[in-house]
Amino acid sequence: MGVLHTLDLENFKSYKGKQVIGPFKRFTAIIGPNGSGKSNLMDAISFVLGEKATSLRVKKLGDLIHGAPIGKPVSNRCSVTLNYKEDDGRLRSFTRSVTGAGSEFRVDGKVVSVQQYNHEMESIQIFIKAKNFLVYQGQIESIAMKNPKERTALFEEISRSCELQQEYDRLKAELQKAEDDAQQNMNKRRGIAQEKREAKLERDEAEKYQHMKDELAAKQRQLYLLELFYCERHGKQAQEELASKKKQVAELEAAKVCQHQTDEQVSEKQKLVKKAQRDNHKLEKEIADKINEYVSLKREAGKRSGLMDMQLNSMRQEHETDRR
C-alpha cells in the first residue's frame, strides 16, 4: 500500500504563497504550539481528499483562500496538491483548487470531473463517502460512545459495504426467494413422493385385483368345462331317464283315464245308493206312519171292545133278570 509523500499548498488558509510540506514517513507526528497551523494542515489534507467546506471550519470554499476570512484575500484562488507514492515508487498527484468559478480537480495535472477524481481516489483505497482516512479531534470519543448499531453503520461506511446495500438487499431477496422456491420444491417433491407411493399402492392393488380377476376367470373356465363334461357325460343317461319318465307319464295318463272312468261309475253307483237311501227313508217313514195308524186303530178298537163288553154284560144282566 502506498503512502502520502508530500503536500503542495498554495494560499491555503494560513499558508501564504506556495508551501511544500514533507516528505512524510509512514508514521509522522506534527507538533507545535497553538496557532502554528497544525489544524490547517489537517484541513489541507481533508480538502484535497474531497471533504466539504463544513468539515473544514469555513462557511464557504472561498474562505479557504489566505486572507479571505478578514476580507483581504491574497489571490483569487488556492490549491492543495497531494503527492502519493505507490509501492513501486511511482508518484501520483491529486490537486483540488478553489477558483472564482468554483472547484477544480486534477489528477496527475489533468483536469477531471469530481466523479473521476473520486474514482481515482478509490483506486488508492481512499473512499471519500466512507471517511475512512481521517479521524478528527474528539471523534475517537464519539466512536467509543456509539452503540453497536451505530458502530456497525460506521464500519459499513469505512468498509464501503453500505454501498453494496442495494446489491445485498437484492441478493438477500433472491436468496429468500431461492429458499422459498427450494422449500416449495421440497414440499412439492414430498407431495410427489407421497403421490408416487399412493400411486404405487394403487398400482399394486390394481395388479392384485387383476391377478385375482384372472384367477377367477380361470376357475370359471374350469367350472364351465367341468359342467360341460358332466352334461356331455350324463346327457345320454338323462335322455334315457327322460324317455322312461315320458313312458311313466303316458302310463299315468292312461291310468288317469281309467280312474276317471271308474270315478264316473262310482259316482253313478253313489247316485243309485243315495236314491235307494232316499226310497228306504221314505218307506221307513210310511211304515212308521202305518204303525202309528195301527196303534191308533188298536187303541180305538180296544176302547170299542170294552164298550161292547160292557154293553154285552149289561144286556146279559138284563136277560138274566128277565128270566127270573
From TrEMBL:
Alphabetized InterPro entries for the sequence: P-loop_NTPase, RecF/RecN/SMC_N, Smc1_ABC
Keywords (alphabetical) are:
Cell cycle, Cell division, Chromosome, Coiled coil, Mitosis, Nucleus
**Classification via CDD domains:** ABC_SMC1_euk
Q: Where in the cell is it found?
A: Chromosome; Nucleus
Q: Which residues form the RecF/RecN/SMC N-terminal domain?
A: 4-128
Keyword S-adenosyl-L-methionine on this protein? Answer: no
Q: What is its main location?
A: nucleus
GO BP term, example: sister chromatid cohesion
What one GO molecular function would you report for this record?
ATP binding
- Segment Disordered: which positions? 180-199, 305-324
Q: Which domain of life is it from?
A: Eukaryota
Question: What GO CC annotations are associated with the protein?
Answer: cohesin complex; nucleus
Question: What protein family is recorded?
Answer: Belongs to the SMC family. SMC1 subfamily.
Tell me the protein's name: SMC_N domain-containing protein
- Species name for this entry? Heligmosomoides polygyrus
Supply the source organism's classification. Eukaryota, Metazoa, Ecdysozoa, Nematoda, Chromadorea
